[in-house]
Amino acid sequence: AEQAAEALRRAIGIDPRQARTWQALGNALRDLGDLADAEAAIRQGLAIDPQRAALWSNLAGVLRLRGRPEEAVVAYRRAAQCEPPTPAIRDATVGALIAAGAIDEARTEA
Question: Largest Cα–Cα distance in the chain?
Fold first, then answer.
């Protein structure tokens, strides 16, 4: 993951306008345990392409890992607005709601 992150940083240095490259960097940094920088990279991708569901889903996952389930719920819901929600997004949203203590809302969402 370290080599991947370095290669992605070089690619971003060449062309920082590619949301997918920011997304890949965020995922590599997440895998390395660098959650703050992973979140920042994913948010950079969202600034470029705010309609990319995968970016919102990746952001939600990082937010959950950072102990911010309420924000993760918002990000999962944004992912579901970008394209038809998948069972995986619905399940992740329910999990984030449960982590946030919103049990009744999680039941409704499920």
Answer: 47
